[in-house]
Every structure is written in C-alpha cells, then in structure tokens.
Amino acid sequence: MDKALTETDPPHDPDHPIRAFRLTREEAEDRRQGGDIEDIFFKGEGRPANKWIDYLPIYERYFSPFRDAGPTLLEIGVGQGGSLDLWRRYFGPDATICGIDVKPVCATRVSPPNLVRIGSQDDERFLKSVIGEIGPPDIILDDGSHMAAHQTAGFRILWPELKDGGLYVIEDTHTAYWNEFGGGYRKDGTAIDLAARLIDDMHAWFHQQATEFAAREEIAAVHAHESILIIEKRKKARPGHIRIGRKN
C-alpha cells in the first residue's frame, strides 16, 4: 500500500472518516506554529507530500538535535517522494536519507543523494540488507502501509538496528482504530497496543515480567502524540532513588 492515507488521495468512499480531516491551504496556514520544517514543507519545492499539520512542530521538537550531526534516516514508505525531499532540505547534504517501499515505481521518485530501496517492511532479510548498506539509523520513520501487523513486524526487526540515542517514529497511529488496517478499539497487535507494551517493557524493573519488544535498559521514553508515536532509544542505568536533607 502506497503510504496509505498520507501521501495519496483519500479513498473514493465519500463517507470514509479520513475525509473529515482534510484542510484547505488557508486553514493549514492558520495553524502554523513556526519552525524550519514548517517553512520547508509549505514552500512546496519538492515532490508532492501530504502531512498531518500537527506533525510538523512535533518533528521540529524531536528532530532538531540531529540536524547538524549528519544523521542517517530510514523512512518506511516513499509514496510520491515528497517526504524524502523534505528531510534532505531539513537535514542538509551530510545526512544519509533512504526510503523503502514495496512499489517499484517509487524507485523513480528520488533525487540523489537520497536513496530508495524496494522491499517490504516485514521482510527481515531485506531490511537488514538496507541497514548493511546505509548503516545504523539515527531516525527510523514508519509511514508505510500502516497495517498493524507490518508496524509491529517492522519494529521488531528494526529497533535493534537503531542507534543508541536514536528515535523510532510511527506515524498515522489513528489507523490502529480502523478495521481495514487490522485495527480496532483496544485491539491487540496495533501500534497503540505496541506503545502500551513498550511502556510495560520500560517498567520491567518493577514488575519483573519478561519484556516483549525491547530491553528495559534501552527504552528512554515513549511519547504518544495524537496519531504519532516517538520512542526514544538510549542506554540507561537501573532506576534508583535517594533521600537528601537534614534529619529532623
């Protein structure tokens, strides 16, 4: 599926819930919060891109520390190629930026030095071959099929490949509530369910159960914004507390 509902037109079904959220250019401009990513996006100088407007300041908040460090970014889902163009303009010439997609046509929607590789986000051999080519990513951005099973499989495969200090981002988590993406309200196996289980993994120091997706020592934070998850990977020590101050 080509970027599902983010880089393509909404489904032909006039009653599909995604249609209720389409903004006009004027409405989107009125909601701008400021920042370089917004400026680059609204200039529209690259290939077509369609973003939820509230993602842009979220990107700015989490991605800005990587901006001058020549990061490696892996984006799952290429669509029309506009997102890859956005990241190149934001991160600059020293960044390594690679997109993957199942559709062969997406290999034509890229400008060097950006890369596109064709394969599925639940294909472990393919994903590891991409990592072998570009190196461990600083940022992994899942904007692929949005199918619950694909999101979970991609995380299992790619989380160990993410650099310490890196970010794993899952977009369009609203699809976790839609049947067509394998979702449903409070359904197991969705991106929302993944976030809950990662929170359990992060707190494994306290419940002593086996972790499911990631070691307790490497989940720094799980940020749940509306329709987007950001998971921070960073090695950390065992929790500890201390009392200070004079004794009464």
Structure description:
With 248 residues, the chain is α/β, with parallel strands linked by helices. The chain is 29% helix and 15% strand. A seven-stranded mixed β-sheet has the order 3-2-1-4-5-7-6, with helices on both faces. Strand 4, helix 6 (148-158) and strand 5 form a beta-alpha-beta unit. The longest helix is centred in the last third of the chain and has 12 residues, at 191-202. The radius of gyration is 19 Å and the shape is globular. The N and C termini lie far apart (66 Å).
Throw out a few tags for this protein.
29% helix; 248 residues; alpha/beta; seven-stranded mixed β-sheet
Task: Give the secondary structure arrangement, pairings included.
Blueprint (H helix, E strand, L loop, with lengths): L24 H6 L5 H8 L11 H9 L8 E5 L5 H10 L4 E6 L13 E4 L5 H11 L4 E4 L5 H11 L8 E5 L19 H12 L1 H4 L11 E7 L2 E6 L15
Parallel strand pairs: 1-2, 1-4, 2-3, 4-5
Antiparallel strand pairs: 5-7, 6-7
Largest beta sheet: strand ordering: 3-2-1-4-5-7-6
Q: Rounded to an integer, what's the Rg over CA atoms?
A: 19 Å
Poorly predicted runs are 1-10
Largest sheet: 7 strands, mixed
Mean pLDDT: 93
Q: What best-fitting shape do the alpha-carbon axes yield? A: globular
For the termini, the CA-CA separation is 66 Å
Beta-strand content:
5-15%
Fraction of residues in helix = 25-40%
Structural class: alpha/beta
Count of helical regions: 8
Number of strands: 7
N-to-C order of helices and strands: HHHEHEEHEHEHHEE
